[in-house]
Amino acid sequence: MTYYSQHAKVWVSVDCIIFGFDDGKLKVLIGRRQMDPGRGEWSLYGGFVAADEGLDEAASRTVKELTGLDNLYMRQVGAFGKTDRDPGERVISIAYYALINVKDYNERLRLEHGVEWMDVNHLPMLYSDHNEMVCKARKLMRQKLRTEPVGFRLLPNLFTLTQLQRLYEAVNGEDLDKRNFRKRIKEMDFIEKTELIDKSGSKRGASLYRFNKKAYNEDPNFKL
Amino acid sequence: MTYYSQHAKVWVSVDCIIFGFDDGKLKVLIGRRQMDPGRGEWSLYGGFVAADEGLDEAASRTVKELTGLDNLYMRQVGAFGKTDRDPGERVISIAYYALINVKDYNERLRLEHGVEWMDVNHLPMLYSDHNEMVCKARKLMRQKLRTEPVGFRLLPNLFTLTQLQRLYEAVNGEDLDKRNFRKRIKEMDFIEKTELIDKSGSKRGASLYRFNKKAYNEDPNFKL
DNA sequence: TCAAAAGTGTTAGATTTACACCCATGA
DNA sequence: TCATGGGTGTAAATCTAACACTTTTGA
Question: Of B12, B54, B78, which is closest to A78 when you measure between CB atoms?
Answer without folding.
Answer: B78
